[in-house]
Design goal:
Helices cover 51% and strands 16% of the residues. It is built from 14 helices and nine strands.
Length: 351
């Protein structure tokens, strides 16, 4: 074997970055959970000052702050021995209303990683591992991570990109959000379109309980409800608008789900499908975004589909061509890419 030492050193350097990042994920979740980022965003602090502000232990906080500075998630001033957040760091780490709020992603990843022992067995046997079998950190992290992006784009860009849907929602429509999880997408739509009525469906009972409590807190429970139901069997007919957010590829039988959506829509209704951004060819997804989605799909999406009937296993990088096939095999005649972001593709389907 003839090793190229420069290439080896480059690869080891990549390992050092990745190994540090994997450990750093835990420190982000700790900082978010204890309010350390939010407190530090107020003004520069020493470890003792931040510990006092957040009622935490100074020695732990000092090590945590050092890790944040080494990772580029905080700044350190040797002259004052204070740590601080730049405006950009605070925007991404301390502002939960920011479209770039990031801590939820780390909570979701740590939740998914708890399933690794079971997934090792699944790799050997080909068995599935359902969404409901994961640790609750995955459910909470997914909401925290996805909600800011939905808040930034859903009402301002995605729905307006659909033919006639925005006007219909403003006038008063009946809407189903299928695979709604904790209901973040449902509630964002309900708050934006007070004349419309919404129902969210998800097979995961604890998520539905969470979503109904969230609707009460948001003051929209009079026209929003959440029910336990699967994508192929949820109740109701003549919906004006059906939406699925980042979950069609997780389903065991997405074609069957497509058929059921078609049956549940009005003849002039619209189905919006939000999916992770993906090109059709694997080689075109070998980039940082693709790395995130393929890794998540290995631990979450593909096992979830395998755990259900059919087990089509589209994966999180299915791409537009495969989604078109799923939707048209389900009976829809019209399908198009309505818009996109660096992280999402938004499709419009009509009967």
């Amino acid at each position: 074997m003839a090793l190229d030492m420069n290439k080896l050193n480059d690869f080891v350097g990549k390992f050092v970055q990745d190994f540090g990042a994997s450990l750093h994920a835990g420190t982000v979740v700790i900082g978010e959970s204890l309010g350390l980022y939010k407190a530090l965003a107020e003004h520069p602090m020493t470890p003792a000052e931040l510990a006092s502000k957040t009622q935490t232990d100074e020695r732990y906080v000092r090590e945590w702050l050092s890790a944040q500075a080494a990772s580029g998630y905080a700044m350190y001033d040797p002259a004052t021995q204070q740590f601080s957040l730049s405006e950009e760091q605070a925007f991404a780490l301390a502002d939960e209303n920011s479209p770039a709020y990031l801590p939820g992603a780390f909570l979701a990843s740590l939740g998914a990683l708890k399933s690794v022992p079971q997934l090792i067995d699944a790799f050997r046997t080909g068995a599935g591992y359902g969404w409901h079998q994961h640790d609750a950190w995955l459910f909470h992290g997914t909401e925290k991570f996805f909600r800011p992006g939905y808040a930034a784009h859903l009402v301002s860009e995605w729905i307006p990109a659909l033919d006639g849907v925005e006007a219909r929602l403003k006038a008063g429509a009946t809407v189903a959000d299928v695979g709604c999880g904790h209901g973040a997408s449902t509630l964002l739509m309900a708050q934006a379109y007070p004349a419309s009525r919404f129902v969210g469906y998800d097979y995961h009972g604890p998520s539905i309980e969470w979503a109904n409590r969230a609707a009460e807190r948001a003051g929209v429970a009079d026209r929003v409800r959440f029910e336990v139901a699967a994508a192929k069997t949820y109740p109701g007919k003549d919906y004006d608008f059906v939406a699925v957010f980042d979950c069609l590829h997780d389903m065991g039988d997405p074609v069957g789900a497509s058929r059921h959506v078609l049956d549940s829509l009005k003849p002039d209704g619209t189905w919006m499908i939000v999916e992770p951004f993906a090109n059709d060819a694997l080689q075109d997804n070998l980039n940082p975004v693709g790395r995130v989605f393929y890794s998540a799909s290995t631990m979450i999406c593909t096992p979830a589909s395998r755990a259900q009937e059919v087990g089509l296993c589209l994966g999180a990088q299915a791409g537009e061509a495969r989604m078109r096939n799923v939707v048209t095999e389900g009976g829809f005649r019209h399908f198009r890419r309505a818009t996109e972001t660096p992280f999402n593709l938004i499709y419009e389907a009509r009967p």
